[in-house]
């Protein structure tokens, strides 16, 4: 078993390296794409900055708190998008019949989808995620202790698993539906735009929706309330809020299970 | 050509449908954000809560029509070599691409209308102060559309040099979302930022038409802003022509 997981990792490294080489062919694109990654997430941060400079607080949260939630989201996003970013291409692979070829190769189709393309833009995300969590972590009203830091790390990993799980779920759906691209873009941009806010401000019903049907609350908001000492604002039992990083495993498992379940339903577009 | 562009959008009805649902949800959340931000506050910088909420809703709809995920087929045509066939057609390439993009825009317009309808149901929309304002707002919207299309096309032209244009397109996409005022109106920006943005073409795309519609900018100032749009349309057209002249000699046909 240990042997096999090692070879999985080796397979991943080999395939990802090839994908990276393919992308480095276009030099100008490399740099602009890198900046693109920063611009994508950065405009939202800029928006929050301008908004809060004018208005001071949103639902009782000031800029240091909101920026910290957003930074947690950026860090977990980076942790999802660098290794798993090419999952967003699954639609095209399936629609163009390229997936036929993947099924023939002696490597797991999931691994092949993951290493399909090294998305350079994601390095920009990584840069921004690391930078933001350091800067806004220091400015956040949190007395950092070792357990709190450990909780932050676990929460960021959990958040990245939530995002990965959502995307893997859509990959599975792509086997039975022709186009899930706009759904993914929707998921991605909703998370980008709204996961930084104190989510309870959208009303109780919407908030519970963010905890279940579209589990965005687990990415940053819930664990952030623990670190910021604001769990009393959350209409959930405190222990559940504290345990929120564990939701990452559940969402990922659910996503992967959907992927495995729907994989046999793939029918080649034929060509 | 315009029809073809229109058809290529309509062909993927599923995507258009999810696009509409997406926009409705995003408009709803944007409205919620601005209502929370104001939360009983008196007008800020002379802007009332109703105006700010209406701005956010209309701007989100306008932006989603102006910025489809794939705003021109030009990069793809260059990448797969289709460009060679396009160049032999008896119609200028720029006209072809422009017409096609116009088709995409027209096909996506109902999307914006659905978003606006949702905003109306949530009582987030306000009526313009009078007929002259509405007429001027419509003119400014056409101006904004032209500026946006020209900008989209100019950025796509980069592909002639770099062959792969994902990067520049993304920087442009998100940069313009902020600079056009579709994320946050220019009223709330600090003076230095606003002053620099006013020198760029992007504000003509969203900020100008929406703030004229809401009556936030009126009279001579509004007419002047439409004048600025006209200047940008002329300037960007000239720029596009100049770029195209140089690109024509750079065309690399990929794949035989």
Q: How far is it from the N-terminal to the C-terminal residue of chain A, by CA?
A: 38 Å
Q: How would a textbook summarize the main sheet of chain B?
A: none
Radius of gyration of chain A: 19 Å
Classify the oligomer: heterodimer
Share of helix of chain B, binned: over 70%
> What class do helices, strands and sheet pairing of chain B give?
mainly alpha
Count of distinct structural domains of chain A: 1
Give start-end ranges of low-pLDDT stretches of chain A: none
Count of distinct strands of chain B: 0
State the end-to-end distance of chain B.
25 Å
Overall spatial form of chain B = globular
What can you see in these coordinates?
Chain A has one domain (2-265). Helix content of chain A is 71%, strand content 0%. Chain A contains 13 helices and no strands. Chain A has helices at residues 2-23, 27-55, 63-84, 90-95, 98-104, 109-114, 121-139, 146-176, 181-194, 204-211, 221-228, 238-242, 247-262. Chain A starts with a helix and ends in a 9-residue tail after the last helix. Chain B has 256 residues and is mostly helical. Chain B has one domain (4-254). Chain B contains twelve helices and no strands. Chain B has helices at residues 2-10, 13-38, 49-66, 74-80, 83-88, 93-121, 131-157, 159-162, 166-179, 191-197, 207-213, 219-248. The chains are: A mainly alpha (271), B mainly alpha (256). The A-B interface holds A 26, 28-37, 39-40, 42-44, 46-47, 50-51, 53-55, 58-59, 120-121, 177-179, 181-183, 185-186, 189-190, 193-194, 197, 201-203, 206 and B 12, 14-15, 18-19, 21-22, 25-26, 29, 32-33, 36-37, 39, 41, 44-45, 69, 161-171, 174-175, 177-178, 183-184, 188-190, 193.
Briefly say what this structure is.
The complex is a heterodimer of chains A (271) and B (256). By secondary structure, chain A is mostly helical.
